[in-house]
Amino acid sequence: MDAGFLKVHFLASKFSSPEAFSNEELSAIALEALQIMDHYQALHPMYTSFQEYVRDRPEAAQFTSEWARKVDGNHPNTSFLVEVDEAASTDKQKVVDEFKQILAVSVIQCDFRMVQFYLGKLENIVQFPGQVTSLQGFTENRFFEHLFYQTVALIFGHWWFESAKKVKHESDEPYSGPSGPRNIASIEKRTHTYHTRCSFLFKSLEDKPEAVVNSIQPELQYYNLVQWLCALAKFTQGKFHVFIAEFDRLYEHISPLECLDLGSETLLMYAVASIATRPFKDLNFNSNEALVDAFTEKAGSLESRVFDVLTLLSNGEFHAAKVSLSDEELLKRLHACLGFALPDEKESFFERLCRLIDQKAFLLILSLTKRISREKLLAMLGYAPGSAIYDDVSNKLLLLVSVLIVA
User: Which domain of life is it from (predicted)?
Assistant: First the structure.
């Protein structure tokens, strides 16, 4: 499975938040992004910014203006499109391999309109049956691989990195041809249906030759990656309950995300979604030792720091948790790593998350005490009389109570 070209978008997203990283970290991000562009012979719209940042590093000496001109002029060979149109028959494997190259280039260039065009063209040339009868047929059909590119075109092109292409041309009109699934639900339906129809093929894999088992792995990896991308899209949609359920279901198959270096971001999304939706007592994740290890295995990491917030909340230390979550350095890192996937109103997302903690803690305290003064309750949440926000928080919590009473 080859999905490494997607990494350039996540690197560019981080690089767009320089305040969150050291100079050394930014140089490493820029260098890795340029290396990906060189490997796939395609330029991301931010390539000049990357070049500028690493121009004094010896290992980046090759990434000159001349290098950029050569890569920019090295357009994918699309002549085979005419050839296969005119051919009486086509070699599906060869055609799909050819398309993979030009799709990767268009994705790196943030030209998702052309990704849609090529996907529509590919479907006109070769067929991707919705059912196969053998493991060889499953491998050669490449259904999940094709669906993976459709998923990328939808999620990357319409939600995560729609504005990444800074330079637009007059000819960049909305593509109106065949473009595959229009929403996540249709992708999930096609994924589930095809996998269900093929499930009988996987029942006796332990009896198959190793070569046969290995041959189907790329398709199964694409299958898992499609599911993960759809799950992450649920986070972007603000469907945190659904995202958590999908994460729990898919976690043992997280390895495809590692090839995109998205493991950390996915854990952070899970933590944020859990803060928003789960009871505080469940935020220590004690029932899942492997998950706790994933958060804490690297001391001082972003995941570890966020897990500390979860632990504080699970212990009822609401004010301390909000102080930690409001730490300027931590917020910069979180925005840099998760900014592409945050729901709408990204800039105020974590401020709103802290207000949600207030509301959940407020209701929890009320449920556990027969009588408590407003001042004491607000003090437990970390607000002191006379502070600028004290009256505002107090009024909003009283409004919450009145709404619940009416309901």
Answer: Eukaryota
Q: How far apart are CA 202 and CA 135, in angstroms?
A: 8
Number of CB atoms found within 10 A of residue 391's CB? 13
Tally the residues of the chain: 407
What does the pLDDT profile of the chain (407 residues) look like in tens digits?
889 999 999 999 999 999 999 999 999 999 999 999 999 999 999 999 999 999 989 999 999 999 999 999 987 766 666 666 555 557 899 999 989 999 999 999 999 999 999 998 898 889 999 999 999 999 999 999 999 999 999 999 989 997 655 444 434 444 444 445 668 999 999 999 999 999 999 988 888 899 999 999 999 999 999 999 999 999 999 999 999 999 999 999 998 898 889 999 999 999 999 999 999 999 999 889 999 999 999 999 999 999 999 999 999 999 999 999 999 999 999 999 999 999 988 889 999 999 999 889 888 888 878 777 778 878 878 777 777 777 777 777 777 766 666 54
- Helix (H/G/I), strand (E/B), else coil: 63: coil
Coil, helix or strand at residue 142: coil
Phi and psi angles of residue 17, each rounded to the nearest 5 degrees, phi first:
-120, 65
Distance CA 246, CA 229 (A): 11
Q: Determine the Cα–Cα distance for residues 391 and 387; give it in Å rounded to an integer.
A: 8
- What is the Cα–Cα distance from 258 to 211, expressed in whole angstroms? 24
Residue 294: CB atoms within 10 Å: 20
Global confidence as pTM: 0.89
Q: At what angle do helices 65-73 and 47-54 cross, to 10 degrees?
A: 150
**E strand intervals along 177-254:** none
DSSP letters for 340-377: GG--SSGGGHHHHHHHHHHHHHHHHHHHH-S---HHHH
Token code pair at residue 286: 């004690």
76 neighbors 48 (Cβ within 8 angstroms): no
